[in-house]
Amino acid sequence: MYIYYMETIKAFENIEAIQIENPVDKIISQLKNLISSGQLKPGDRLPAERVLAEMFGVGRGYIREAILKLEFYGLLKTSPQSGTYVSGFSLKILDSIFTDIINFNKENYASLIEARYYMEINSARLAAERRTEADIEQMEEALTEYDSQSEKGQSGVQEDMLFHIKIASSTKNTVIESMLLILIPDLIKIIVDNNICNTKRSHSSVIEHHNIMDAIIRQDVNSAGEAMAVHLKPMMESRMNF
Question: Which of 47, 70, 87, 148 is most deeply packed, by most CB within 10 A?
Fold first, then answer.
């Protein structure tokens, strides 16, 4: 009986774990199929986010994230006045780019962390150089929200990310801001899954955030970059675990 059982277990050695597909990936895949099949053509306008959310049976946040990724790769174009349109890429190029988007950082989290590290150091430097008084106000509001979560003993992952988004917005470089917005869902997953932002780390982050904020207010470009590097060092070191 035991030998039979072991043989049965052996038969399962080549079984692959079931991968749960992200709703955003499913939205992108279905849009790809509509474009590849010719049902959606270059220049066609997509339905409004609310309508798409109803069609896909998901929240508008998933629709917004999918559109943001497709815009970043140039596959969709959005005009505030007229809506979102399919770009004019050929089907061959579209197929290659769609595959790249869906596989984006699925396996290589180490590269994702490294990309964030260098991008955000430069983001802090540019923010220090270009920030306005309005930018400072928004960054300080985000910082207050994070501080409040930390005081309650919470990790404040989303509040942390909001602060970083406000810094990216202060660079006045829409590509940097868009890139960070694209990375955020995977970054939050890494942070939560690996307990990187625990309560002990949260206390250190409060000090580090204020050091970054102070340098940006003073428009000290070098200090802002250095403070951001210190802040992201623990995550950068954690990439060796992936």
Answer: 70
